Amino acid sequence: MITAVLRRVGAGVLVLWAAASAAYLALLAAPGSTVDAIIGDGADTPGIRAQIIDEWHLDRPALVQYLDFLWRAAHGDLGRSYLLQRPVSAVIGSQLVPTLKLAVAAAVFGLVLALVFAIFARRLTSVIGLVLVSTPPFLIGIVLLSVFSFTLGWFPVSGDRSFAALVLPAITMGLPIAGTLAQVLREGLDRALEEPFAVTARARGLRERAVLTRHALKHALLPAVTMLSWSFGVLIGGTVIIEQVFGRPGLGQVTVQAVNSSDLPVVLAVVILAAAVFVVINTVTDLAYLLIDPRLRRS
Amino acid sequence: MTPPLVRVEDLTITFHLPRRTVEAVRGVSFTIEPGECVAIVGESGSGKSVTARSLVGLAGPGARVDAATLEVDGQDARRFAPRDWRRLRGGFAGLVLQDALVSLDPLRTVGAEIAEVLRVHSSRSRSERTREALRLLDEVHVPEPERRAGQYPHQLSGGLRQRALIASALAGGPKLLIADEPTTALDATVQAQILKLLAERRSLGDTLLLISHDLAVVSRLADRVLVMKDGRLVESGTTKRLLSGADHPYTRKLIAAASGRRRESTAEPGPVVAEATALRKVYGDRAVVRDVGVTIRRGEIVGLVGESGSGKTTVAQLLFGLVEPTSGQVRFEGQRFSGVPERARRPLRRRLQFIAQDPLSAFDPRWTVRRIVAEALPRGESVTPVLERVGLGGDVLDRYPRQLSGGQRQRVAIARAIAPRPSLIICDEPVSALDVSVQEQVLDLLAGIRERDGTALLFISHDLGVVRDLADRVLVMQDGQVVEQGTSQAVFEQPQHEYTRRLLAAVPTLEVSA
Amino acid sequence: MTIALTGPRAVRLRSLRPARPGVVVAVLFLLVALLAAAWPSLFAGDPLRADPLHVLGAPSGSHWFGTDQLGRDVFARVVHGARHSLSIGVSATLIAVGTGILLGLLAGLGHRVADEALSRSFDALSAFPLVLLALLFIAIAGTGTTSLIVAIGIALVPHFARVVRAQTFVVRRAAYVTHAVAFGATRPRLVLRHVLPNVLGPIPVLAVIGLGEAILLAAGLSFLGMGPQPPSPEWGAMISEGRGYLHIAWWASVLPGLVVTATIISLTVVGRFFQRRFEGRELA
């Protein structure tokens, strides 16, 4: 058990290290000098250049620079955005909450909708799922916006001031997730309902609905959990576009602005943050697996 | 006189599949009286399972069930609504399927599975249900019921699992117990225990409907036997009458296959072909093979028997040079075959061939039969004569393996194995996946190859009957060791080791009265 | 087992398989889209000609999809946009498939250490948001069509590499490879005759489905302004440009969006159809 936990933590640290190193490599690979890359479209003065060289230890050997970068990243110091004149951690920290709110709301909505589809409308799921997965999320957002905000006026057009402002973005992001998840759940249910244990359960006199909820659903949840953890990646990526559509503050906006103005320190920090989210989600997924499937609990 | 539990007349079951319609059962009639044990015997595709399942309305989705009479528990089941069927399931009839590892929900505890039946069919409280589940486990002789009830199916041995499955089928106090291949996935010794349990249920007055492909298993328990083939009932009668004089040729064929037939040989053993000395294979901290030695001579068939986990397949891999022994040595045709690089083995490779249990996975799915066999032949030789030798015509030449029947596939596998004229063929459970009547043909084929070519065979099987019919010498393996070896006659007629005796006693045999 | 179990499975396969008319419609739609990309003037006029008198005009006989904020014909722009969007998608998919096969085989056939390192990175990267991977690349290489193509290609590599690696492992351990050893096959021979054909067989079908993903991603990124720059017609960019006039002229944004959706659905339907056929052939 302890070795399993240690291995889990070790793997997580490894992923974070890989992400940080990849980000650092990307910085080195950027055209122009490293200083130019860090400045981006920000003000370019000799003072700022000196400050960057000092902060990134650019006058020291490459290995020292790299190790120092890792050391600072491990302590949560992700550098400074010279464009915004603020520490990167402050830039990201201030925008983290609205994005998390959106991601969690979308995931919950997607999961609930997927369960409803998979259990109550199994025949329809493959068609609905196909359409939802194939539609660009921003198109869904635009249509929802034009119908419910512009035409009917039920929800605010932009911002993040009220719960109402969260509804449309969460639906927009949740729909594609629901589409994928419902398909996975449905396939899992179909497979489980064909298994011999489902026949045994029916032979006990259980109703079909009871065979589904008491036996098959748990089996179908296993692949769905994997899918849900994957969809968090989609969510984080999705915020980049959805926050644009709905004019919401958040990490997505920060990322797009940073990419547009070549503010590399911020982009790299977002990448490392996403890796951290990935590690957390993966750990939760593994735990969920152990909870659901006793066969995996062996030592 | 009490009415029959089940009365079926002219039962027809049709499956409407996407592109075709399959008549799985055609015009079958039978009755089951209270207290008797009826068996349905047939090979795969005979419709025996579907027939049994239709008695509880579980013939399967897409199935259309028609009958002149379908009386279950005295009621006309032809007009049953789903809720009528549900009342019968578990209450009137309990169902036991083949492999408890998948027939019990692997994500729920054994106790919960048994208690579920009580939840549906009684108004007992939760604690009463738990107590009843423990009582049922005790009734089917599961030791330490308290501990076992809290465990999951994968934590139980095959035998205990199957007992738990039977307990769950008994929980609703059914008048009829339907057992569909209840012992097929089990080792011989465990199979014997489960059969004993079923016999015990019968002596307690339970009515049994037994479904099996194995006439020998059935003959131990059943009062009456129904023989099915291709969806039709070809013959029925008391077990005694069928065994002493069956009318239908198909039944006689099944009986002949189940009682076995010794294939004697005139071939004299020649020089040593392969020799393994003091083989030992350790995986992690587990010794899978311990100090195994075997010598195989030209023209000889050596049987290697053992239950699952005995290490017999590892021995095959060691001899074949797929796995390197931890210690010990393999020599083939006088040359070192283990502990050398694959390059050194390659010139000898075509002299040593292999036939596996599952021929489908042994063929590249993208290759036709022609290409598969041609690869094995010396360059320029024609494929047709080899196929003829295994009884296949030219019509299979351009087919893909998946387009062949199980028997045809195994014949192609044999053709491929004999094509390079090897001196030794290792056969790992070559007939286990085949229907009994096909098994016989394949065994004849293998015996003929030894007789004509003088090819040596190492025949690995869990099925002692098959080994007895074919092998000159036998090695019995248990826990990675050879516990007994000798000529077939000696081992089967005067077994020395206790384990061999236990194995032999467990083998269901058919006692055909003349 | 008996028919009781094969029956429902067959029924299930049918219910999952896209309906046949659907496949036909999808194929037709894709053919038209390809034709439009190859020869746009066959279907519509100049995508850049602005008609100031018909700004934001509703769909009509002369302008099937209406006009945009500059009075340009939306239908003409969608047709001409097919060239941009499809070629971006196809090029990106080719990059992803090519690199994916190479890395996947390297992991699947190479040394254990190489496999461990590569497959760990594939796993981590494929769980990583595609948009972020692409954006990271664009942040460094700058915006533009080439950069967009490479960015999407790189983002999709882990997916293909994983599939190829997994398939390689399955084939390598397959019993028929063991049997080829029995005939003295050397390693290169094994790889060429058995492993490669069986590993690469399903790739074209996966590539078709992957193309849908690439087009979706491309639309998203050009929606953010990272793709071909105005005034060149590109589907994602058109949706973005029309967004500001949504409350008075929904068509300028929604209709191009529906074309994107239809394209991706068609690709998925066709891809899955062949995938099922392929699997069915393997199983039956």
From TrEMBL, chain A:
Q: Where is the ABC transmembrane type-1 domain?
A: 92-285
| Gene Ontology biological-process entries | transmembrane transport
Family the UniProt entry places it in: Belongs to the binding-protein-dependent transport system permease family.
State the source organism's domain of life.
Bacteria
Residue ranges spanning the membrane: these are 102-120, 127-157, 163-185, 221-246, 266-292
Q: Does the keyword Membrane apply?
A: yes
What keywords sit in the KW lines? Cell membrane, Membrane, Transmembrane, Transmembrane helix, Transport
User: Any coiled-coil ranges, and where?
Assistant: none
Question: Topology versus the membrane, per the UniProt entry?
Answer: Multi-pass membrane protein
Its name, as the record gives it, is: ABC transporter permease
What is one cellular component GO term in this UniProt entry? plasma membrane
Q: Where in the cell is it found?
A: Cell membrane
UniProt cross-references to Pfam families, sorted A to Z: BPD_transp_1
UniProtKB/TrEMBL annotation, chain B:
* InterPro entries according to UniProt: AAA+_ATPase, ABC_transp_ATP-bind, ABC_transporter-like_ATP-bd, ABC_transporter-like_CS, Oligopep_ABC_C, P-loop_NTPase
Q: Where are the transmembrane segments?
A: none
**Sorted alphabetically, which keywords does the UniProt record give?**
ATP-binding, Nucleotide-binding, Transport
- Gene Ontology molecular function: ATP binding; ATP hydrolysis activity
Which SUPFAM superfamilies does the UniProt record give? Answer: P-loop containing nucleoside triphosphate hydrolases
PROSITE patterns, per database record: ABC_TRANSPORTER_1, ABC_TRANSPORTER_2
Boundaries of each ABC transporter domain copy? Answer: 6-255, 274-504
List, in alphabetical order, the GO biological process terms annotated in this UniProt record: peptide transport; transmembrane transport
- KW Repeat (keyword) present: no
Q: Sorted alphabetically, which SMART domains does this protein's record hold? A: AAA
Give one Pfam hit by family name: oligo_HPY
Q: Which CDD domains match?
A: ABC_NikE_OppD_transporters
Q: Which PANTHER family would you find in this protein's record?
A: D,D-DIPEPTIDE TRANSPORT ATP-BINDING PROTEIN DDPF-RELATED, TRANSPORT ATP-BINDING PROTEIN
Protein name as annotated:
ABC transporter ATP-binding protein
Q: Which organism is it from?
A: Actinoplanes cyaneus
Upper classification of the organism = Bacteria, Bacillati, Actinomycetota, Actinomycetes, Micromonosporales
UniProtKB/TrEMBL annotation, chain C:
Q: Name one GO biological process term.
A: transmembrane transport
Task: Indicate the transmembrane segments per the record.
Answer: 21-39, 88-110, 122-141, 147-164, 199-228, 248-274
What does the entry list under GO cellular component?
plasma membrane
Where in or outside the cell it occurs: the entry states:
Cell membrane
Q: How does it sit in the membrane?
A: Multi-pass membrane protein
Q: Which UniProt keywords apply?
A: Cell membrane, Membrane, Transmembrane, Transmembrane helix, Transport
Record's CDD domains?
TM_PBP2
UniProt xrefs under SUPFAM superfamilies: MetI-like
Identify the residues that the record assigns to the ABC transmembrane type-1 domain, covering every copy: 82-271
Query: Would you say which domain of life the source belongs to?
Result: Bacteria
- Tell me which family the UniProt entry assigns to this protein: Belongs to the binding-protein-dependent transport system permease family.
Tell me the protein's name: Peptide ABC transporter permease
Give the originating organism. Actinoplanes cyaneus
